[in-house]
Design goal:
Blueprint lengths: L1 E5 L4 H12 L3 E6 L6 H6 L3 E5 L5 H8 L4 E4 L11 H16 L3 E7 L23 H15 L4 E7 L1 E3 L8 E4 L9 E3 H14 L5 E6 L1
Parallel strand pairs: 1-2, 1-4, 2-3, 4-5, 5-6, 6-10, 7-9
Antiparallel strand pairs: 8-10
Length: about 210
């Protein structure tokens, strides 16, 4: 399998790259600071390093062209002023559709999960922490771009991410918080689940709640 990973140098991205290479995937690691992968790329022909800017249409198109799937781990500032999460995913979607690449798994926040059976989001509930609202709204905008696209998307709505390896011990739930929910997930387990979902396609066109 050939995958393009946006946000490859982040906490979760590094785990995705490592685990995907261990599965002998061809990994196209895209980002502005991908120099950290150059030594590995020189030793492993399955790793392709692409230095680029997620808002650049041509660079993103070239990065996704010929891939079987995309994993988006875009980050940004916590105050919501940085639009990388929303406008970045918008450009990725457009270039995927142009390149005829259909499968994407993207990372967002748990506020985008349903609060009740009416479809109201946790983000808009009175109990949602105000300090998380700006970044939550960015995640909501990214989710809206995905769900209105023609892509086969899965949106992982993670709680606090811990910089730790995969345990394989986590729970998931479709569109709602998982049970039990401990409000944390290892970066390695997020990567493990994303690559598993690429194979299983259990949550296509759904959000996923996840917790260790």
């Amino acid at each position: 399998m050939i995958i393009t990973v946006f946000g490859a140098t982040g906490m979760v991205g590094k785990h995705v790259v490592q685990q995907a290479l261990a599965k002998e995937f061809t990994v196209k690691a895209f980002g502005r600071n991908v120099e950290i992968f150059l030594d590995e790329a020189n030793k492993n022909t399955h790793l392709i390093v692409i230095k680029g800017y997620v808002f650049d249409k041509d660079e993103v198109y070239e990065a996704v062209k010929g891939s079987d799937a995309v994993i988006s781990l875009l980050g940004g500032s916590f105050d919501g002023k940085d639009k990388t999460r929303s406008l970045g995913i918008k450009n990725i979607i457009a270039q995927m559709e142009k390149a005829n690449v259909h499968r994407i798994i993207a990372l967002g926040g748990m506020g985008i999960l349903n609060a009740d059976k009416s479809g109201n989001l946790l983000l808009h509930s009175h109990s949602y922490p105000a300090e998380y609202l700006p970044v939550g709204l960015e995640h909501e905008e990214a989710y809206n771009y995905l769900r209105h696209s023609a892509l086969n998307w899965t949106f992982i709505c993670s709680p606090d991410i811990i910089d730790a390896d995969a345990t394989g011990n986590f729970v998931t739930n479709k569109d709602f918080l998982p049970e039990p929910n401990h409000n944390k997930i290892n970066a390695g387990d997020l990567a493990f689940f994303m690559l598993k979902e690429l194979h299983d396609n259990e949550f296509v066109k759904h959000r996923v709640g996840i917790s260790n």
